Amino acid sequence: MKERLKSILLFFLVIMSIYMTYLLWISFPESSIFTKKSTALQVDIFHIIRPQYTIINLDNDKKEYVKKEDQFLKLWENTIAYVKNCKSIKDYNIDKSTWDEKGRDFSLHFYMYDGFNAELFKELLSDNKTFFKKLNGSFEISEVLFDLENGWIYIKNNKKDKYSALECEGNTKNITNYIKSLNNQDVTVCQTVYQSGYNDYFINGNLFLPTYNKDFTIEKLFNKDIYGYGYLNKIISNLFINMSVVREINENSGFIVYTDGIRSLRFHKSDFIEFYNTSTDNNLSDQNASLNFALNFLSQTGISLNKIHLATIKKLNNNYEFYFNYNANLPLRVLDKYADYYPIVVKINGGDVKYAFIKLLNLYPGGYYADQILSPEKILKDISETLKIKMPIDNLKLVYLYKDNHLIPSWELKKDKNIYYINAFDGKLIDDGV
Amino acid sequence: MNWSKAKSIMVIIFIFLNIILYLSIRNLNVPLKETYTSKDLKAVLSVLSDNNIYINTHIPEGIRKMPLLKVERQNIPFEYIKNSFLKGKTYRTYKKGGYNFYESGNLFIKTGTGYFYYSVKNQNFEKMDNNEKAEYISDFLKRYNLLEKNAKEQIYKNNGEVIFIYTENYNDYFLDLGKIEAKMTNNYFTVEKTWFLPVKIESRTKEVIPAIEAIMKLIEINKENETIKIEQINLGYYFNWQNAQMGDAVPVWRLTDSNGKCFYINAYTGIIENGQ
């Protein structure tokens, strides 16, 4: 009987100790294990800062459009390595005719995104002190031309119609050999039209016209949802300094908001997140430091920095707005109720992230489209007739348009401030951009 | 092995373990002691008065830890409105600015997310004395089940105006904006109600800042250097997210001035709180 009582008492004491351990655990204020550690940024910056399109100019006036992400990056990476390591001889201001002439030689032609200025490259290419450092920080680098015959680097400021050249000595053999190894799967023959008439149509901006043969196929891309509530819990714990004061609000519109009164995170199902920060800290930070803040922030939100690149920079006083795009073989545009154009934007003010919008996409390939895309001539003919759009248009580009959870290969047509998206396969207008 | 002896030893060990755990839990939950001495307090009050801020009330001490409180706005359903106030009546209904409106003769009702407003005009109200008015209001609130538990009642009778105010409380803490106000003035009788349903209290409690720290925030608020006389200092919950049906109410220090204006200071972080 006594033994039985002892057993019952022991059982009771064990249960009590488990329960009180639980009570003690939940009574602890948030301790250091809940506070956030800042992580060192692990990213190859030239995967983030990269061109929008890459064209190989062959000596016989033939042009090749680099289709694949891997090849595209390899060429860019090698060019950056070349600029870092080459021996600078002299730099020159050149005129348009020289630029055009060089574009007909064997060269690599990189078309950059808007807002990429010399400031962005100055620090990152600090090994090369002569050329980029001499440029005015606001010099916008819209195109880079790498002459593979003489090793010179040319850059163009599209807005101001200015051209510069860097005479340097280096070894271009590796890049040349690499280009020779590319096959039809990697590149396609194309022509570019710039500020000139194209058949009966006139285009002010850049137009890359892939040759329409069976080699030109577009990769199918799908979005696989991986951003569930487990992901949400992770980013909340990353973004808030003290989790214990974060409260949850269920908005009538379907958003869930997490806020500590200063920082707020809005989460819409598994679709996108918005971040607001109302702190009034005001530390001065330059463009590159601000970019670093933005990248740090994105890595905290669980976005893999290997899967995105910088698309545009906007500056207003001490505010920097960085627009990022997901990596894909064609540029990606997002068009839905909440996102507009680029899927990711991070606004930095006073050295801190003040606002961010992230469309959560996890892109994966799923084969190639069997259909051929419609030619630019057909698109231009149709729009001039049906939409009554007068020539010249500003730009025509092949892009992936993300709409209603689908990625649609589309022609993006810019005219004045309007952007039109036309399904690249059936020619139907997807959005009139008005 | 002597199993009986082993059990005895384990019983003793677990008794000690349970005592230690119990004492630890008790220590964690005792009221926090203010670290301010009376000398410190005097200095703080002096700084405040230099900034035209005067404290005319007792400053609370010995504050416990508080958890977040999940609340849900109480919505008044259309069925209730129809069966209670519009039965057998011809009425007009329309929507505007996120609110629903119902009108029938002298009757006017407005509802929204967690909001209810009732107004009726009747010449007979003017003929009633204060006691009759109070009786009418009390009966009305009971008849239509508009009263709530956990409410603090205040009744004002003044110059033919009778007002019943019920403010919401949860575990002795105010739940700000949870309020029922029933008023009879001249020939109008109105009822306005915003109420929260406590859904869940978070298991983890956190320290709240001392009242004096919250009061010091007034210096930051009073940029115009106007005279602020604080008449009440209370600790409670605040949820003011307009477009949300449900969410966590945060502990706040509510500082009420002589004009009835409230300043809310987040009791966890000490930042000025708008509830959003």
Structural class of chain B: alpha+beta
Order of helices and strands of chain B, N to C? HHEEHEEEEHHEEEEEHEEE
Task: Return the CATH architecture of the largest domain in chain A.
Answer: 2-Layer Sandwich
What is the residue-averaged pLDDT of chain A?
79
Give the biggest beta sheet of chain B.
14 strands, mixed
Rg over C-alpha atoms of chain B, rounded to the nearest angstrom? 25 Å
Structural domain count of chain A: 3
The biggest beta sheet of chain A reads:
9 strands, antiparallel
Report the total helices of chain B. 6
- Cα shape of chain A: globular
Strand proportion of chain A: 35-45%
**Class from helix and strand fractions of chain A:** alpha+beta
CATH superfamily of the largest domain in chain A: YycH protein, domain 2
Low-confidence sequence ranges of chain A: 30-38
The CATH topology of the largest domain in chain A is what? TATA-Binding Protein
Uncertain segments of chain B are none
At the first level of CATH, the class of the largest domain in chain A is Alpha Beta
Rough shape of chain B?
extended
Tell me the radius of gyration of chain A. 26 Å
Strand order of the largest sheet of chain A: 3-7-6-5-4-1-2-8-9
Word description of this protein:
The complex is a heterodimer of chains A (434) and B (276). In chain A, the strands form four sheets. Chain A has a nine-stranded antiparallel sheet with strand order 3-7-6-5-4-1-2-8-9. In chain A, strands 11-12-13-14-20-19-16-15 form an eight-stranded antiparallel sheet, covered by helices on one side. Chain A has a six-stranded mixed sheet with strand order 18-17-22-23-24-25, with no helix packed on it. Chain A folds into three domains: 45-182, no CATH class; 223-364, TATA-Binding Protein, CATH 3.30.310.160; 367-431. Chain A is of the alpha+beta class. Chain A has helices spanning 2-27, 45-48, 69-85, 96-102, 118-124, 131-134, 173-181, 229-239, 287-300, 376-386; strands at 53-57, 63-66, 87-94, 107-111, 143-147, 153-157, 162-169, 187-198, 201-210, 219-223, 247-251, 255-259, 263-268, 272-277, 308-316, 319-326, 332-335, 340-341, 344-349, 352-359, 363-368, 395-403, 406-415, 418-423, 429-431. Chain B is an alpha+beta fold. Chain B has two domains: 32-70 and 201-266, Beta Barrel (Lipocalin); 76-112 and 115-194. Chain B is 28% helix and 38% strand. Chain B is built from six helices and 14 strands. In chain B, strands 1, 2, 3, 4, 5, 6, 7, 8, 9, 10, 11, 12, 13 and 14 form a 14-stranded mixed sheet that branches. The mean pLDDT of chain B is 88. The interface between A and B is large, with 33 and 39 residues. β11 (247-251) of chain A pairs antiparallel with β13 (244-257) of chain B.
